[in-house]
């Protein structure tokens, strides 16, 4: 008896790890004991398989994206079975999982902000790839396609990642003035979304260094440091993303890190005979068939379209900036970046950057 005890524990551990390695919807399958630990389930000698290949997709904002997924039976069935297909989404912001679409045969229903924007490809039998049209900044995250056949179900995950750029944002009132809700509004007004920790971390790895703390999508406040120095957490700490942890969303005030994605269209410095005050600048872009560019559009054009111009111009929030991808004398620091002159008086006369979707 004593000799067998370790073996029993070992077997129990094996079962536990099998159960937790496959997705569970609350039912207990008798066939879990027959599973091979790779998330496969057998019933009546038939195995239902679900696969998402490739497991990630990188769409363009405003475009369409296909999240691959297919299912099949082993051995193959002679008569097709009626299955229920469900796609769910776990947002990067750390909110809980929500339904995207459920389908039986050719009938389907979509939910929430995916309503009427998603459908199944169903090109060939077993194809349950999800097509999302007009992809938005909010759509990033982990998707799960699930096939339910009677009591059996299987699922596979697909990651959707928007290529983007993270930028720190401070409103014209100055440093540390935004509650979490105000921070979210500020990013939206700049055609961007509050950055997630993963996005800020990726930006830090690419060299982002910023000494003011900003909100992130999960309600924490952090800042990225690549060159440790004394006012920014001190020299004792190594480079890293420094965190103040979760802050009170209503009463605490900080700056924010926004995330802007690749954009269709173009951002350009308006050729105009005179320099313009702010209200003239807004109007001049409209007259030119576009609109004054937001900060998010400026960063996206700088990062993805290589926008480089050594002339300061108005942007939609009333700030004055210019984008440099090839640093040179008299155009700011040695590193590429979007340079900012802050928020000058709206009566001052400058150039302007416009955005056109065409
Ligand atoms: C995206 O899909 C929709 C719906 O099928 C289609 O009307 C539209 O033309 C597609 N857009 C692009 C850019 O492919
Ligand atoms: C795409 O989505 C945006 C919001 O994310 C909306 O403003 C725009 O009208 C949508 N475009 C189409 C063609 O549905
Ligand atoms: C900009 O100049 C116009 C005159 O061209 C004037 O009417 C307007 O009030 C000025 N706006 C600002 C913000 O100075």
TrEMBL record:
Q: Which residues form the signal peptide?
A: 1-22
Pfam families in the record, alphabetically?
V-set, Xlink
InterPro entries on file: C-type_lectin-like/link_sf, CTDL_fold, Hyaluronan_bind_Proteoglycan, Ig-like_dom, Ig-like_dom_sf, Ig-like_fold, Ig_sub, Ig_V-set
Localization, UniProt: Secreted, Extracellular space, Extracellular matrix
Its organism's taxonomic lineage begins at: Eukaryota, Metazoa, Chordata, Craniata, Vertebrata
Q: Where is the Ig-like domain?
A: 62-161
Q: List the disulfide bonds.
A: 211-232, 285-354, 310-331
Keywords of the record: Disulfide bond, Extracellular matrix, Hyaluronic acid, Immunoglobulin domain, Repeat, Secreted, Signal
Q: Which GO terms describe its biological process?
A: cell adhesion; central nervous system development; glial cell differentiation; positive regulation of neuroblast proliferation; skeletal system development
GO CC, alphabetical: extracellular space; perineuronal net; synapse
Q: What name appears for this protein in its UniProt entry?
A: Hyaluronan and proteoglycan link protein 3
Q: Which PROSITE patterns match?
A: IG_LIKE (PS50835), LINK_1 (PS01241), LINK_2 (PS50963)
**Which molecular-function annotation in GO is an example for this chain?**
hyaluronic acid binding
């Amino acid at each position: 008896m004593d000799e067998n005890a370790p073996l029993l524990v070992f077997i129990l551990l094996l079962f536990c790890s099998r159960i937790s390695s496959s997705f569970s919807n609350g039912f207990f399958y008798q066939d879990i004991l027959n599973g091979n630990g790779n998330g496969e389930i057998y019933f009546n000698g038939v195995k239902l398989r679900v696969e998402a290949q490739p497991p990630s997709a990188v769409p363009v904002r405003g475009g369409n994206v296909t999240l691959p997924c297919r299912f099949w039976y082993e051995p193959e069935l002679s008569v097709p079975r009626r299955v229920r297909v469900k796609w769910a989404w776990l947002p990067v912001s750390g909110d809980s999982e929500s339904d995207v679409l459920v389908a039986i045969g050719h009938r389907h229903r979509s939910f929430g902000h995916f309503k009427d924007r998603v459908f199944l490809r169903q090109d060939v039998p077993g194809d349950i790839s999800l097509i999302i049209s007009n992809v938005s900044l909010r759509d990033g995250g982990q998707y799960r396609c699930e096939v339910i056949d009677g009591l059996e179900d299987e699922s596979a995950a697909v990651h959707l990642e928007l290529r983007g750029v993270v930028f720190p944002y401070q409103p014209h009132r100055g440093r540390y003035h935004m509650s979490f809700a105000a921070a979210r509004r500020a990013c939206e007004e700049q055609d961007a979304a509050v950055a997630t920790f993963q996005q800020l971390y990726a930006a830090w790895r690419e060299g982002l260094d910023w000494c003011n703390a900003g909100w992130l999508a999960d309600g924490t406040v952090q800042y990225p440091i690549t060159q440790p120095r004394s006012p920014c957490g001190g020299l004792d700490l190594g480079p890293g993303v420094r965190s103040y942890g979760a802050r009170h969303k209503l009463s605490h005030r900080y700056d924010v890190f926004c995330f802007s994605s690749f954009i269709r269209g173009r951002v350009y410095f308006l050729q105009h005979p005179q320099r313009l005050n702010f209200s003239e600048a807004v109007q001049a872009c409209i007259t030119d068939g576009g609109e004054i560019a937001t900060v998010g559009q400026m960063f996206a054009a700088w990062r993805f379209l290589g926008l480089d111009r050594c002339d300061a111009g108005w942007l939609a929030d009333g700030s004055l900036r210019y984008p440099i991808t090839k640093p040179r004398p008299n155009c700011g620091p040695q590193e590429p970046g979007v340079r900012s002159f802050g928020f000058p008086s709206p009566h001052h006369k400058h150039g302007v950057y416009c955005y056109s979707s065409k």
